Structure prediction request, 483 residues.
Amino acid sequence: MSAVLTTRLKITDLTAETALEAGRRLLPEGVSLERLLREELYLFEPAPGQAATAFEAPLEQAIESSNFFVNPNKERYRFLRSAARGDSLPPPDGAWGILARPRGETRDDVLLERLLREHPLPGLGAIRRARIWWLWTRGPNGDAAIDACHAAIGPVEETRRGLLVNPHAEASLLLRSPLPWSRVEAFLHDLAVAFHAA
Amino acid sequence: MARAAVLQIPGVNCEYESARALEAVGIEATIVRFNEPASVLSEFAAYLLPGGFAFQDRIRAGAVAAKLPAVERIAHEAERGKIVLGICNGAQVLVETGLVPGLKAGRVEVALAPNRAPRRSGYLCRWIRVRAAEGPGRAAFTSALPLDRVAPLPMAHGEGRFVTADPDVLARIEAEGLALLRYVAADGSKATAYPDDPNGAMLQIAGLTNRAGNVLALMPHPERAAQLRHVPLDWPGEWGDRRRAAVGNWAALEGPGPGRFVFESLARRLGVSPREGALAPGAGR
Prediction:
Protein backbone atom coordinates (compact mmCIF):
# COMPACT_ATOMS: atom_id res chain seq x y z
CA MET A 1 0.00 0.00 0.00
CA SER A 2 1.22 3.45 -0.89
CA ALA A 3 1.25 6.71 0.97
CA VAL A 4 -0.47 9.52 -0.89
CA LEU A 5 0.25 13.21 -1.35
CA THR A 6 -2.06 15.57 -3.19
CA THR A 7 -1.12 19.19 -3.79
CA ARG A 8 -2.86 22.16 -5.34
CA LEU A 9 -2.35 25.87 -5.54
CA LYS A 10 -4.07 28.04 -3.00
CA ILE A 11 -3.17 31.13 -4.97
CA THR A 12 -5.05 31.50 -8.26
CA ASP A 13 -4.30 28.56 -10.50
CA LEU A 14 -3.97 30.20 -13.90
CA THR A 15 -3.90 26.83 -15.65
CA ALA A 16 -7.21 25.89 -14.07
CA GLU A 17 -8.63 29.32 -14.90
CA THR A 18 -7.58 28.93 -18.54
CA ALA A 19 -9.01 25.42 -18.64
CA LEU A 20 -12.25 26.79 -17.21
CA GLU A 21 -12.46 29.49 -19.87
CA ALA A 22 -11.49 27.22 -22.74
CA GLY A 23 -13.70 24.41 -21.46
CA ARG A 24 -16.79 26.58 -21.23
CA ARG A 25 -16.53 27.36 -24.94
CA LEU A 26 -16.58 23.67 -25.79
CA LEU A 27 -19.61 22.62 -23.74
CA PRO A 28 -22.94 21.87 -25.37
CA GLU A 29 -25.70 24.40 -24.94
CA GLY A 30 -27.45 24.24 -21.59
CA VAL A 31 -24.46 22.72 -19.83
CA SER A 32 -22.33 24.85 -17.55
CA LEU A 33 -18.88 24.42 -16.08
CA GLU A 34 -19.00 26.16 -12.73
CA ARG A 35 -15.65 25.37 -11.21
CA LEU A 36 -12.50 23.50 -12.09
CA LEU A 37 -9.66 22.48 -9.82
CA ARG A 38 -6.30 20.91 -10.62
CA GLU A 39 -4.49 18.59 -8.20
CA GLU A 40 -1.19 16.77 -8.47
CA LEU A 41 -1.17 13.26 -7.08
CA TYR A 42 1.93 11.47 -5.78
CA LEU A 43 1.97 7.83 -4.74
CA PHE A 44 4.90 6.77 -2.57
CA GLU A 45 5.49 3.05 -2.98
CA PRO A 46 7.55 0.97 -0.59
CA ALA A 47 10.55 -0.88 -1.96
CA PRO A 48 10.08 -4.64 -2.43
CA GLY A 49 9.87 -6.36 0.94
CA GLN A 50 9.27 -3.09 2.77
CA ALA A 51 6.17 -1.40 4.12
CA ALA A 52 5.23 2.24 3.73
CA THR A 53 5.42 2.61 7.49
CA ALA A 54 9.20 2.48 7.11
CA PHE A 55 9.36 5.90 5.46
CA GLU A 56 6.04 7.62 6.11
CA ALA A 57 7.00 9.51 9.25
CA PRO A 58 10.23 11.02 7.90
CA LEU A 59 8.52 11.66 4.55
CA GLU A 60 5.72 13.57 6.27
CA GLN A 61 8.33 15.52 8.18
CA ALA A 62 10.17 16.30 4.93
CA ILE A 63 6.96 17.51 3.30
CA GLU A 64 6.08 19.67 6.27
CA SER A 65 9.45 21.19 6.92
CA SER A 66 10.93 21.71 3.47
CA ASN A 67 9.57 23.09 0.24
CA PHE A 68 10.52 20.02 -1.75
CA PHE A 69 6.93 19.18 -2.69
CA VAL A 70 4.96 22.10 -1.35
CA ASN A 71 5.59 25.76 -0.77
CA PRO A 72 3.07 26.51 1.98
CA ASN A 73 2.86 30.14 0.90
CA LYS A 74 1.23 29.15 -2.35
CA GLU A 75 0.14 25.52 -2.13
CA ARG A 76 -2.00 23.38 0.11
CA TYR A 77 -1.57 19.65 0.45
CA ARG A 78 -2.92 16.48 1.96
CA PHE A 79 -0.56 13.72 3.02
CA LEU A 80 -2.24 10.40 3.73
CA ARG A 81 -0.32 7.61 5.36
CA SER A 82 -1.08 4.18 3.94
CA ALA A 83 -3.01 3.10 7.04
CA ALA A 84 -4.98 6.33 7.26
CA ARG A 85 -5.83 7.03 3.65
CA GLY A 86 -9.20 5.26 3.77
CA ASP A 87 -10.58 2.90 1.18
CA SER A 88 -10.94 5.22 -1.70
CA LEU A 89 -10.14 8.52 -3.35
CA PRO A 90 -13.27 10.63 -2.84
CA PRO A 91 -14.24 13.50 -5.15
CA PRO A 92 -14.79 16.84 -3.40
CA ASP A 93 -18.44 17.66 -2.67
CA GLY A 94 -20.44 17.99 -5.85
CA ALA A 95 -17.49 17.30 -8.14
CA TRP A 96 -16.47 14.58 -10.54
CA GLY A 97 -12.98 14.10 -11.82
CA ILE A 98 -10.56 12.99 -14.48
CA LEU A 99 -7.46 11.16 -13.31
CA ALA A 100 -4.72 11.43 -15.93
CA ARG A 101 -1.33 9.79 -16.14
CA PRO A 102 1.40 9.61 -18.80
CA ARG A 103 1.01 6.67 -21.17
CA GLY A 104 4.60 5.72 -20.56
CA GLU A 105 6.24 5.17 -17.21
CA THR A 106 4.51 6.88 -14.29
CA ARG A 107 7.51 6.45 -12.01
CA ASP A 108 9.44 9.65 -11.58
CA ASP A 109 12.93 8.34 -10.93
CA VAL A 110 14.58 11.73 -11.32
CA LEU A 111 12.34 13.13 -8.58
CA LEU A 112 12.98 10.10 -6.37
CA GLU A 113 16.72 10.42 -6.76
CA ARG A 114 16.61 14.10 -5.92
CA LEU A 115 14.34 13.48 -2.92
CA LEU A 116 16.58 10.77 -1.53
CA ARG A 117 19.61 12.98 -1.94
CA GLU A 118 18.01 15.64 0.22
CA HIS A 119 15.96 13.45 2.55
CA PRO A 120 17.18 9.90 3.19
CA LEU A 121 14.03 7.74 3.31
CA PRO A 122 14.94 4.09 3.74
CA GLY A 123 12.26 1.80 2.37
CA LEU A 124 10.91 4.20 -0.26
CA GLY A 125 10.95 2.42 -3.61
CA ALA A 126 9.17 4.62 -6.12
CA ILE A 127 7.22 7.80 -6.64
CA ARG A 128 4.40 7.71 -9.17
CA ARG A 129 2.69 10.81 -10.42
CA ALA A 130 -0.66 11.71 -11.92
CA ARG A 131 -2.93 14.70 -12.27
CA ILE A 132 -6.54 15.06 -11.22
CA TRP A 133 -8.95 17.56 -12.73
CA TRP A 134 -11.98 18.09 -10.50
CA LEU A 135 -15.00 19.59 -12.22
CA TRP A 136 -18.27 21.05 -11.01
CA THR A 137 -20.78 20.99 -13.86
CA ARG A 138 -24.49 21.36 -14.30
CA GLY A 139 -26.71 20.08 -17.07
CA PRO A 140 -30.10 21.31 -18.23
CA ASN A 141 -31.87 18.91 -15.88
CA GLY A 142 -29.93 20.06 -12.87
CA ASP A 143 -27.71 16.99 -12.83
CA ALA A 144 -23.94 17.11 -13.40
CA ALA A 145 -24.22 15.96 -17.04
CA ILE A 146 -20.98 14.07 -16.52
CA ASP A 147 -21.04 12.13 -19.77
CA ALA A 148 -21.73 15.18 -21.92
CA CYS A 149 -19.06 17.22 -20.14
CA HIS A 150 -16.52 14.43 -20.23
CA ALA A 151 -17.03 14.07 -23.98
CA ALA A 152 -16.75 17.82 -24.52
CA ILE A 153 -13.74 18.69 -22.38
CA GLY A 154 -12.19 15.37 -21.37
CA PRO A 155 -9.87 13.42 -23.68
CA VAL A 156 -9.21 15.13 -27.02
CA GLU A 157 -10.57 12.97 -29.78
CA GLU A 158 -11.53 15.53 -32.35
CA THR A 159 -10.48 19.06 -33.14
CA ARG A 160 -13.59 20.47 -31.50
CA ARG A 161 -14.05 17.84 -28.82
CA GLY A 162 -11.90 17.33 -25.76
CA LEU A 163 -9.40 19.47 -23.91
CA LEU A 164 -7.90 18.27 -20.67
CA VAL A 165 -6.18 15.08 -21.81
CA ASN A 166 -4.51 14.07 -25.08
CA PRO A 167 -5.13 10.31 -25.08
CA HIS A 168 -2.09 9.65 -27.25
CA ALA A 169 0.20 10.91 -24.50
CA GLU A 170 -1.93 10.24 -21.43
CA ALA A 171 -4.33 7.61 -20.17
CA SER A 172 -7.26 8.81 -18.13
CA LEU A 173 -9.95 7.52 -15.81
CA LEU A 174 -13.30 9.11 -15.18
CA LEU A 175 -13.95 9.58 -11.46
CA ARG A 176 -17.73 9.58 -11.06
CA SER A 177 -17.65 8.48 -7.46
CA PRO A 178 -15.08 7.48 -4.85
CA LEU A 179 -12.50 5.22 -6.49
CA PRO A 180 -10.82 2.49 -4.41
CA TRP A 181 -7.16 3.25 -3.83
CA SER A 182 -6.33 -0.21 -5.14
CA ARG A 183 -7.75 0.85 -8.51
CA VAL A 184 -5.85 4.13 -8.42
CA GLU A 185 -2.66 2.20 -7.72
CA ALA A 186 -3.37 -0.29 -10.49
CA PHE A 187 -4.15 2.52 -12.93
CA LEU A 188 -0.81 4.15 -12.24
CA HIS A 189 1.08 0.89 -12.12
CA ASP A 190 -0.19 -0.93 -15.21
CA LEU A 191 0.84 -0.18 -18.77
CA ALA A 192 -1.60 2.04 -20.60
CA VAL A 193 -3.23 0.08 -23.40
CA ALA A 194 -3.12 1.07 -27.06
CA PHE A 195 -6.32 2.03 -28.78
CA HIS A 196 -7.63 2.84 -32.22
CA ALA A 197 -8.23 6.53 -32.72
CA ALA A 198 -10.60 6.19 -35.64
CA MET B 1 5.01 38.31 -54.18
CA ALA B 2 3.64 35.50 -52.02
CA ARG B 3 2.35 36.56 -48.63
CA ALA B 4 2.56 34.56 -45.44
CA ALA B 5 0.94 35.23 -42.07
CA VAL B 6 2.89 34.60 -38.88
CA LEU B 7 0.34 34.06 -36.15
CA GLN B 8 1.05 35.87 -32.91
CA ILE B 9 -0.63 34.10 -30.01
CA PRO B 10 -0.07 35.30 -26.42
CA GLY B 11 3.07 33.55 -25.23
CA VAL B 12 4.80 32.89 -28.53
CA ASN B 13 8.26 34.39 -28.78
CA CYS B 14 9.67 33.55 -32.20
CA GLU B 15 7.37 35.53 -34.47
CA TYR B 16 9.89 38.20 -35.45
CA GLU B 17 12.77 35.90 -36.37
CA SER B 18 10.32 33.61 -38.18
CA ALA B 19 9.07 36.58 -40.21
CA ARG B 20 12.66 37.59 -40.96
CA ALA B 21 13.50 34.09 -42.19
CA LEU B 22 10.53 34.23 -44.57
CA GLU B 23 11.43 37.72 -45.78
CA ALA B 24 14.99 36.58 -46.43
CA VAL B 25 13.79 34.20 -49.14
CA GLY B 26 11.42 36.72 -50.70
CA ILE B 27 8.16 35.82 -48.95
CA GLU B 28 6.31 38.84 -47.59
CA ALA B 29 5.60 38.08 -43.95
CA THR B 30 2.92 39.76 -41.87
CA ILE B 31 2.54 39.20 -38.15
CA VAL B 32 -1.17 38.69 -37.46
CA ARG B 33 -2.52 38.81 -33.93
CA PHE B 34 -4.61 35.90 -32.72
CA ASN B 35 -7.62 38.13 -31.97
CA GLU B 36 -7.84 39.91 -35.29
CA PRO B 37 -10.91 38.88 -37.27
CA ALA B 38 -10.17 35.39 -38.53
CA SER B 39 -11.31 36.43 -41.98
CA VAL B 40 -8.13 38.52 -42.28
CA LEU B 41 -6.19 35.30 -42.56
CA SER B 42 -7.84 34.17 -45.76
CA GLU B 43 -5.85 36.59 -47.89
CA PHE B 44 -2.54 34.84 -47.23
CA ALA B 45 -0.98 32.04 -49.26
CA ALA B 46 0.82 30.43 -46.34
CA TYR B 47 0.83 30.43 -42.55
CA LEU B 48 3.55 30.06 -39.98
CA LEU B 49 2.76 29.20 -36.37
CA PRO B 50 5.92 30.21 -34.50
CA GLY B 51 7.63 28.82 -31.44
CA GLY B 52 7.16 29.91 -27.86
CA PHE B 53 4.67 29.08 -25.17
CA ALA B 54 1.17 29.91 -26.38
CA PHE B 55 -1.01 30.55 -23.35
CA GLN B 56 1.99 29.60 -21.21
CA ASP B 57 1.51 25.96 -22.24
CA ARG B 58 -1.36 25.83 -19.76
CA ILE B 59 -3.16 22.48 -19.63
CA ARG B 60 -0.76 21.13 -22.26
CA ALA B 61 1.44 22.70 -24.93
CA GLY B 62 -0.74 23.81 -27.84
CA ALA B 63 -4.00 22.63 -26.28
CA VAL B 64 -5.64 26.01 -25.75
CA ALA B 65 -4.30 27.68 -28.90
CA ALA B 66 -5.67 24.83 -31.03
CA LYS B 67 -9.20 25.98 -30.14
CA LEU B 68 -8.71 29.60 -31.26
CA PRO B 69 -10.90 30.89 -34.08
CA ALA B 70 -7.73 32.05 -35.88
CA VAL B 71 -6.28 28.56 -35.75
CA GLU B 72 -9.58 27.08 -36.88
CA ARG B 73 -9.46 29.44 -39.86
CA ILE B 74 -5.92 28.36 -40.67
CA ALA B 75 -7.05 24.73 -40.45
CA HIS B 76 -9.81 25.56 -42.89
CA GLU B 77 -7.32 27.17 -45.27
CA ALA B 78 -5.05 24.13 -44.94
CA GLU B 79 -7.91 21.92 -46.00
CA ARG B 80 -8.12 24.08 -49.12
CA GLY B 81 -4.46 23.30 -49.83
CA LYS B 82 -2.71 26.33 -48.42
CA ILE B 83 0.63 25.79 -46.75
CA VAL B 84 0.98 25.73 -42.96
CA LEU B 85 4.27 25.44 -41.09
CA GLY B 86 4.26 25.05 -37.31
CA ILE B 87 7.60 25.35 -35.55
CA CYS B 88 8.05 23.95 -32.03
CA ASN B 89 5.08 25.38 -30.12
CA GLY B 90 3.44 25.91 -33.49
CA ALA B 91 3.95 22.20 -34.17
CA GLN B 92 2.31 21.42 -30.83
CA VAL B 93 -0.68 23.52 -31.87
CA LEU B 94 -0.95 21.73 -35.21
CA VAL B 95 -0.85 18.34 -33.50
CA GLU B 96 -3.64 19.39 -31.15
CA THR B 97 -5.77 20.54 -34.09
CA GLY B 98 -5.40 17.16 -35.78
CA LEU B 99 -4.01 18.77 -38.95
CA VAL B 100 -1.07 16.38 -38.78
CA PRO B 101 -0.98 13.59 -39.68
CA GLY B 102 -4.57 14.23 -40.74
CA LEU B 103 -5.26 10.63 -41.71
CA LYS B 104 -8.88 11.05 -40.75
CA ALA B 105 -10.24 14.57 -40.98
CA GLY B 106 -11.05 16.19 -37.67
CA ARG B 107 -9.38 13.51 -35.55
CA VAL B 108 -6.47 14.10 -33.18
CA GLU B 109 -4.20 11.15 -33.91
CA VAL B 110 -0.88 11.98 -32.26
CA ALA B 111 0.51 13.91 -29.32
CA LEU B 112 3.74 15.67 -28.45
CA ALA B 113 4.65 14.10 -25.14
CA PRO B 114 7.38 15.13 -22.70
CA ASN B 115 10.90 14.33 -23.87
CA ARG B 116 12.21 10.96 -22.89
CA ALA B 117 15.94 10.41 -22.47
CA PRO B 118 17.92 8.38 -19.95
CA ARG B 119 18.27 10.17 -16.61
CA ARG B 120 16.91 13.41 -18.06
CA SER B 121 13.59 15.08 -17.84
CA GLY B 122 12.03 18.32 -18.94
CA TYR B 123 13.21 21.02 -21.28
CA LEU B 124 16.14 20.35 -23.55
CA CYS B 125 17.96 22.99 -25.59
CA ARG B 126 20.73 21.85 -27.93
CA TRP B 127 21.68 21.42 -31.57
CA ILE B 128 20.69 18.19 -33.28
CA ARG B 129 20.80 16.86 -36.83
CA VAL B 130 17.97 16.03 -39.18
CA ARG B 131 17.66 14.44 -42.56
CA ALA B 132 14.79 14.65 -45.01
CA ALA B 133 12.90 11.65 -46.38
CA GLU B 134 10.76 11.27 -49.47
CA GLY B 135 7.15 12.01 -48.73
CA PRO B 136 4.21 14.20 -49.59
CA GLY B 137 5.67 17.22 -47.78
CA ARG B 138 8.95 17.25 -49.66
CA ALA B 139 7.92 19.75 -52.35
CA ALA B 140 6.74 22.34 -49.85
CA PHE B 141 9.22 22.00 -47.02
CA THR B 142 12.43 20.14 -47.88
CA SER B 143 13.02 20.37 -51.63
CA ALA B 144 16.11 22.53 -50.97
CA LEU B 145 17.70 19.87 -48.78
CA PRO B 146 19.18 16.97 -50.77
CA LEU B 147 18.09 13.63 -49.35
CA ASP B 148 21.66 12.55 -48.71
CA ARG B 149 22.54 15.63 -46.65
CA VAL B 150 22.29 16.24 -42.93
CA ALA B 151 21.15 19.61 -41.59
CA PRO B 152 22.07 20.74 -38.09
CA LEU B 153 19.27 22.62 -36.32
CA PRO B 154 18.69 23.85 -32.78
CA MET B 155 15.93 22.33 -30.71
CA ALA B 156 14.46 23.82 -27.53
CA HIS B 157 11.49 22.02 -26.08
CA GLY B 158 10.18 20.03 -23.16
CA GLU B 159 7.38 18.29 -25.02
CA GLY B 160 8.63 17.25 -28.42
CA ARG B 161 8.24 13.49 -28.50
CA PHE B 162 5.84 12.54 -31.28
CA VAL B 163 3.72 9.64 -30.02
CA THR B 164 0.50 7.89 -30.90
CA ALA B 165 -1.42 5.31 -28.97
CA ASP B 166 -2.89 3.95 -32.18
CA PRO B 167 -0.72 1.32 -33.91
CA ASP B 168 -2.56 1.89 -37.19
CA VAL B 169 -1.66 5.57 -37.18
CA LEU B 170 1.99 4.73 -36.58
CA ALA B 171 2.00 2.22 -39.43
CA ARG B 172 0.40 4.68 -41.82
CA ILE B 173 2.77 7.52 -40.88
CA GLU B 174 5.65 5.26 -41.84
CA ALA B 175 4.07 3.71 -44.90
CA GLU B 176 2.89 7.01 -46.35
CA GLY B 177 6.15 8.88 -45.76
CA LEU B 178 4.70 11.44 -43.36
CA ALA B 179 7.81 11.42 -41.16
CA LEU B 180 9.39 14.05 -43.39
CA LEU B 181 12.32 14.99 -41.17
CA ARG B 182 13.98 12.61 -38.75
CA TYR B 183 16.70 12.97 -36.16
CA VAL B 184 19.91 11.33 -37.37
CA ALA B 185 23.50 10.72 -36.29
CA ALA B 186 26.34 12.86 -37.67
CA ASP B 187 26.87 10.45 -40.58
CA GLY B 188 23.20 10.57 -41.51
CA SER B 189 22.38 7.14 -40.16
CA LYS B 190 19.39 6.47 -37.92
CA ALA B 191 19.60 8.08 -34.50
CA THR B 192 19.53 5.22 -32.06
CA ALA B 193 20.16 6.87 -28.71
CA TYR B 194 20.50 10.17 -26.92
CA PRO B 195 21.89 12.69 -27.88
CA ASP B 196 21.38 11.96 -31.60
CA ASP B 197 17.83 10.99 -30.71
CA PRO B 198 17.08 13.82 -28.31
CA ASN B 199 13.59 13.00 -27.13
CA GLY B 200 12.57 9.43 -27.96
CA ALA B 201 10.03 10.33 -30.66
CA MET B 202 8.42 7.48 -32.57
CA LEU B 203 10.34 6.84 -35.81
CA GLN B 204 12.76 9.58 -34.65
CA ILE B 205 10.32 12.13 -36.07
CA ALA B 206 11.47 15.74 -36.00
CA GLY B 207 8.92 16.92 -38.57
CA LEU B 208 5.56 15.34 -39.37
CA THR B 209 3.41 16.24 -42.37
CA ASN B 210 -0.14 15.56 -43.40
CA ARG B 211 -1.04 13.32 -46.33
CA ALA B 212 -1.51 16.24 -48.71
CA GLY B 213 1.97 17.49 -47.86
CA ASN B 214 0.91 21.08 -47.22
CA VAL B 215 1.16 21.06 -43.41
CA LEU B 216 4.34 20.44 -41.43
CA ALA B 217 4.72 20.22 -37.66
CA LEU B 218 8.43 20.72 -37.04
CA MET B 219 9.97 20.58 -33.56
CA PRO B 220 13.49 21.98 -34.23
CA HIS B 221 13.85 25.68 -35.03
CA PRO B 222 15.02 26.38 -38.62
CA GLU B 223 14.52 30.12 -38.11
CA ARG B 224 17.20 30.01 -35.43
CA ALA B 225 19.58 28.49 -37.97
CA ALA B 226 18.59 30.55 -40.98
CA GLN B 227 21.89 32.44 -41.07
CA LEU B 228 25.43 31.21 -40.85
CA ARG B 229 26.06 33.31 -37.74
CA HIS B 230 23.52 31.17 -35.89
CA VAL B 231 25.76 28.08 -36.10
CA PRO B 232 27.78 27.53 -32.89
CA LEU B 233 31.47 28.22 -33.34
CA ASP B 234 32.36 24.81 -31.94
CA TRP B 235 29.94 22.86 -34.13
CA PRO B 236 31.84 20.01 -35.84
CA GLY B 237 31.84 19.28 -39.55
CA GLU B 238 31.12 21.32 -42.65
CA TRP B 239 28.75 23.87 -41.13
CA GLY B 240 31.12 24.48 -38.23
CA ASP B 241 34.03 24.90 -40.65
CA ARG B 242 32.06 27.47 -42.60
CA ARG B 243 31.07 29.29 -39.44
CA ARG B 244 34.66 29.50 -38.22
CA ALA B 245 35.91 30.58 -41.64
CA ALA B 246 33.35 33.41 -41.63
CA VAL B 247 34.55 35.03 -38.42
CA GLY B 248 35.01 38.72 -39.12
CA ASN B 249 33.20 38.51 -42.45
CA TRP B 250 29.81 40.06 -41.79
CA ALA B 251 28.43 39.35 -45.25
CA ALA B 252 29.24 35.67 -44.91
CA LEU B 253 27.81 35.51 -41.39
CA GLU B 254 24.55 37.02 -42.65
CA GLY B 255 24.42 34.41 -45.42
CA PRO B 256 22.37 31.22 -45.44
CA GLY B 257 22.58 28.88 -42.50
CA PRO B 258 21.58 25.24 -42.25
CA GLY B 259 17.94 26.02 -41.45
CA ARG B 260 17.44 28.09 -44.57
CA PHE B 261 16.35 25.03 -46.56
CA VAL B 262 12.89 25.07 -45.00
CA PHE B 263 12.23 28.64 -46.08
CA GLU B 264 13.84 28.18 -49.50
CA SER B 265 11.66 25.17 -50.10
CA LEU B 266 8.60 27.18 -49.10
CA ALA B 267 9.62 29.99 -51.46
CA ARG B 268 10.04 27.56 -54.34
CA ARG B 269 6.68 25.98 -53.61
CA LEU B 270 5.03 29.40 -53.51
CA GLY B 271 6.66 30.36 -56.80
CA VAL B 272 8.63 33.20 -55.27
CA SER B 273 11.34 34.67 -57.48
CA PRO B 274 14.45 34.52 -55.39
CA ARG B 275 15.94 37.76 -54.23
CA GLU B 276 19.57 38.14 -55.01
CA GLY B 277 21.38 35.88 -52.63
CA ALA B 278 18.21 34.51 -51.14
CA LEU B 279 18.53 31.14 -52.80
CA ALA B 280 22.29 31.25 -52.78
CA PRO B 281 24.19 27.97 -52.85
CA GLY B 282 24.93 26.63 -49.45
CA ALA B 283 21.63 26.24 -47.75
CA GLY B 284 20.93 22.65 -46.97
CA ARG B 285 24.19 21.52 -48.48
In short: Chain A has five helices and eight strands. The beta strands of chain A are 3-9, 32-46, 75-80, 88-89, 96-102, 124-138, 170-175, 179-180. Residues 96 and 177 of chain A are 7 Å apart (CA to CA). The longest helix of chain A spans residues 14-26.
